[in-house]
Amino acid sequence: MRNQGQFPIQTPDGVMVPAERDDACEVIRPEGDADRIQPPPNFQRRWNYRLLLTLAAIVVIAPVFIYALHEYQMRRMASTFLERAEKYEAEGSFALAAKNLQGYLRFNPDDIDARVRMALLTLETAETPGQKQNAYFQLSAVLTKLPERDDLRRKRVELLIDSLPSSAENLPQADQDLDILIGNLHETTSDDPDFARAQKEIVELCVIKAKCCEILSDTEGAIRAYRYAVKIDPEQVTARSHLARLLSRQGQKKEAEDVLKKLVQYRPDSGEGDRARASFYHDAGNLQAAI
């Protein structure tokens, strides 16, 4: 049934009103005449399928396009941060390099190479205890992903022993790292071209391990580490000096003197053996022997 509220309708030819008996309409002209308008038979609404398909395509494609544009912008920003970081690092501006590399990692958090660089830059620029602690955390995070990176492990050891306040929490970690580093170097065989270098590094690490044990009040562990360093390199001045000092404190004065006497025998012309021996007797209160 026709909605009567739509009428009357003003048209160019006159006023359109509904007919009284059927669905037809009548147009009343100004002069009083009326024309009858009959609706077309079998009238039905037709859909504009082309418009509907166009709208559907827009709805489907628009999110994809927006996502692709967003990804492109993110990649471009990340690339800009990385380029700036490389530029500042080449110029020696490590703080600015670290800041831009941090921006890059916001977009690429799984880039492990960038995380390694970030840890090294943080370590390079660390001055306050908080910054050094941050460098430690970043090195530790990288080492969980790359446990084979002995260079990073050694940097963590040096940071723990030399830079951070010595505590019962970080020194055991350093001691564990030293054991891993020494164990890995022991895998270098005598026919390997790097054998001599590996032996030298073992001696250095044993001296560091002994110092770590001394801080932890593990005198026996320190003595073992110094002994091993001297076994590999009998001319190692630091190891022999500290070994003699610890042996003397343990009441083994004769062995302590023998350790220093052999150092003088191994290095008769360097003067280091004589100085180490004199320092040992001076600390022991034997000024006559120190002269």
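[next item in queue]
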Amino acid sequence: MYRLLYSSLALCVLLAGCSKPKPQPTPPAPTVQTVITTSGIVDWSGWKRWIRETPRMVLVDNIDTETQRLISEQTRLFKVLVSEPEAVPVGTNLNKELETLKTAFLNRAYNKHNFYYNGGNNVTSTDTTTYYSSSSAVRINVPHFDCWDRYRRMVQGLQVSNLETTIFTLERQSGYDQKDLAEQKGSNGIIGAQARADLNWQASTLTPFIESLKRLSTPKVPATTDVARARNQWQGFETNQLPLIQRVMTDRTIAVTTANDDGSFSMIGKGQLYAIVTVAGRELYFPANGRDAPGLLFVNIHTKSVPSAP
């Protein structure tokens, strides 16, 4: 009996040792966390005269119909205003344009010793009396230094703040000089030749310069009836409706980012995409799916899921 029991136990141990282990269950694959991003490119070069700062891109959620209508009205008014070069008071490059005109004028040729006679031999200003009576073929091509220097000193002090006054002074001085030079241009020798050169310089350089200053100081394009009407409408819109748009857009913002210098942008989130542009301190909103803002172009706008950062 004991032998049978031992045999049974041995058989059990042997069978247990020879049995194959049960396979372990395969662990589930780790879950990859993802986020939705919105990216693309915004091009504002069509309105770069008015948009001086890089636009911000904003995702918003569930903009109501009334706010969408107000944004459409904002876009309509803005389009009319910017249709005229002087329509929107956003600042101009007046200082830069004025400096360009000044530099071109001050760099024009003059010669303190600019008297020529008998085929081109140089006569300095100290020699003028010597050659005055004997010069029969005097040739002078540039204004006399004294004449040029009068205007140089006026132009060097020219600024936007005194533009109108300086234009008046330049014109008055030019009138005085032209009267005196007209009396001298028929004289023989150096006096007549220099007077003719000074008059030619006034006609070819000074007068066009003064006319350029006048154009710079005067609005380039008068406001049309549509622009004048839009200006009046904009004043009320900016006071009453624009704050409503800004309040709704702020309340419904999902994500916001500033576009890169090349216009590219990317941000986490999905929603209705708008560009926020700043014009003369005003924040204006333009939808990415709208076609009413020709100065803004939205390119390659898409959303996709990407792995989230660990």
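[queue empty]
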